[in-house]
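Entry for the shared binder. Reason: the reviewer on the internal report wants the predicted structure included alongside the sequence.
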Amino acid sequence: RADEGYLGRGRETQPYEKTINSASQKYLYCMEVSMKEILTCLEQKVILLTEILNLTKQIEVRSKENDIELDNFLDQRGIYIGRVNKCDDLILSLSKSLPLEQQTRLQQILHAEYSEDECSKEELPLLKLSIECTELLQRAAIIDKSARDAIQEQCNELREKINMTRKNGNQQTMYNNIH
């Protein structure tokens, strides 16, 4: 039924022809859809960043072992990072469908430049998810640096052992060609 906004087939059931009949109503509907899609992207981004954080924690644990084996953690994390980048690209693309002033405001919300009090009830979930994304990224970056430092330390120790072996004798070893 068209008068009830019923989505169906046939002439008598055309969706929203009566409910969305002006350009301003269509515009508002499109903006609402874009904001919902952006919210969905942010929710997906939180899930992906949580996976990245979990993988980074596993990498850190492995980096502190004597025999570092990262299995495919780096590859998996790279896949998730690619998906996060796709979410960011989609958010950017969706935001371009908004008026310029709303694009600017959205970017400020996504960068947490507003407090919760400064956001409308529709903007609040965007702000909270953006803050959560930032926190997940920061936590992952700290853990990643710790893991990289531990791996670098092991590399330096191995390099020093190799150099000591070279200095202590001219014996042929498998390390003679490493500088």
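Summary line for the report: Residues 40 and 88 are 12 Å apart (CA to CA).
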